[in-house]
Amino acid sequence: MSSLSVYHVSSPEIPNKVLTHFEDIASTLAEKGVRFDRWEAAARIQPGASQEEVIAAYRTQIDKLMTERGYVTVDVISLNSDHPQKAELRAKFLDEHRHGEDEVRFFVAGRGLFTLHIDDYVYAVLCEKNDLISVPAGTPHWFDMGEHPHFVAIRLFNNPEGWVAKFTGDDIASRFPRLED
Ligand SMILES: CSCCC(=O)/C(O)=C/O
Ligand SMILES: [Fe+2]
Ligand code: NI
C-alpha cells in the first residue's frame, strides 16, 4: 500500500503523520507542489524486464506524458534482487540530491521509497505500482530501492541527457528510515 509519512527534520524516529489514502497523500503533496497521481499500470511487467519491453508496453501513457508536459527523454529502471550491481545502484540514489528538472516517475511494478526534504519537513513517499510522482525541479530528495530491489519505474526527463543530479552534501538521508524489505 502506498503511503506518505511526514516528519519534522528534527525527529526522524517518529513521523508527525502517516497517510495511506490516495486522496490524503495527493492533497498533502500537492500543497508542496508535488504531483502524486494514480495511473493504471495494466501491462504485466516483471522487475528485470528490459527497457524496450517496458517502453513498448506503456507507449500510450509515455506519449501522453511527453505530449502534455514536453518531456523529451524516457528511460526505465527495472531491477530485481538478482541484479549483480544492486548495491551500487541503491547507493547511487541514497544521498540527498537535486535535479534541474522535475523528477517524473511512473511505477509499473514493485515499490520504492522517495523521500523529499522541503523546508523543515521530510516527506517519505512509498510509491507502488500505479503511482505517478512528479517532484519539482530543485527539490532536495533521495530514493531507496531497498536491499532487495523489486521495481520497474519509467522515468521522463525534459533534457536530452536524461538523469543528471547534484548532490547536496547533507547527510540528512542517513538519519531517516529506509525502505523496509
Ligand atoms: C525510481 S527511479 C530511480 C531513482 C531516480 O531516478 C532518482 O533520481 C532518485 O532520486
Ligand atoms: Fe532523484
Ligand atoms: Ni512484483
TrEMBL record:
Assembly and interaction partners: Monomer.
Instruction: Note the PANTHER family from the entry.
Output: ACIREDUCTONE DIOXYGENASE (PTHR23418:SF0)
**Site feature May play a role in metal incorporation in vivo: at which residues?**
96
Does the record bear Oxidoreductase in its keywords? yes
**Which Pfam families did the record assign?**
ARD (PF03079)
- What reactions does this protein catalyze? 1,2-dihydroxy-5-(methylsulfanyl)pent-1-en-3-one + O2 = 3-(methylsulfanyl)propanoate + CO + formate + 2 H(+); 1,2-dihydroxy-5-(methylsulfanyl)pent-1-en-3-one + O2 = 4-methylsulfanyl-2-oxobutanoate + formate + 2 H(+)
User: Which of the seven top EC classes does this enzyme belong to?
Assistant: oxidoreductase
Recorded hits in SUPFAM superfamilies, A to Z, give: RmlC-like cupins
Provenance organism: Pseudomonas marvdashtae
Q: Which InterPro entries match?
A: ARD (IPR004313), ARD_bac (IPR023956), RmlC-like_jellyroll (IPR014710), RmlC_Cupin_sf (IPR011051)
| Cofactor: binding details | Binds 1 Fe(2+) cation per monomer.
Q: In which pathway does it act?
A: Amino-acid biosynthesis; L-methionine biosynthesis via salvage pathway; L-methionine from S-methyl-5-thio-alpha-D-ribose 1-phosphate: step 5/6
List the protein's name.
Acireductone dioxygenase
GO MF: acireductone dioxygenase (Ni2+-requiring) activity; acireductone dioxygenase [iron(II)-requiring] activity; iron ion binding; nickel cation binding
Provide the residue positions that the database annotates as binding Ni(2+).
Answer: 97, 99, 103, 141
Described by its record, this protein's role is as follows: Catalyzes 2 different reactions between oxygene and the acireductone 1,2-dihydroxy-3-keto-5-methylthiopentene (DHK-MTPene) depending upon the metal bound in the active site. Fe-containing acireductone dioxygenase (Fe-ARD) produces formate and 2-keto-4-methylthiobutyrate (KMTB), the alpha-ketoacid precursor of methionine in the methionine recycle pathway. Ni-containing acireductone dioxygenase (Ni-ARD) produces methylthiopropionate, carbon monoxide and formate, and does not lie on the methionine recycle pathway.
What does the similarity note say? Answer: Belongs to the acireductone dioxygenase (ARD) family.
CDD domains from the UniProt entry: cupin_ARD
State its cofactor. Answer: Fe(2+); Ni(2+)
Site Important to generate the dianion: give positions: 105
What residues does Fe(2+) bind to?
97, 99, 103, 141
Q: Where is this site: May play a role in transmitting local conformational changes?
A: 102
Q: What EC numbers are recorded for this enzyme?
A: 1.13.11.54, 1.13.11.53
Q: Which GO terms describe its biological process?
A: L-methionine salvage from methylthioadenosine; L-methionine salvage from S-adenosylmethionine
Q: Which UniProt keywords apply?
A: Amino-acid biosynthesis, Dioxygenase, Iron, Metal-binding, Methionine biosynthesis, Nickel, Oxidoreductase
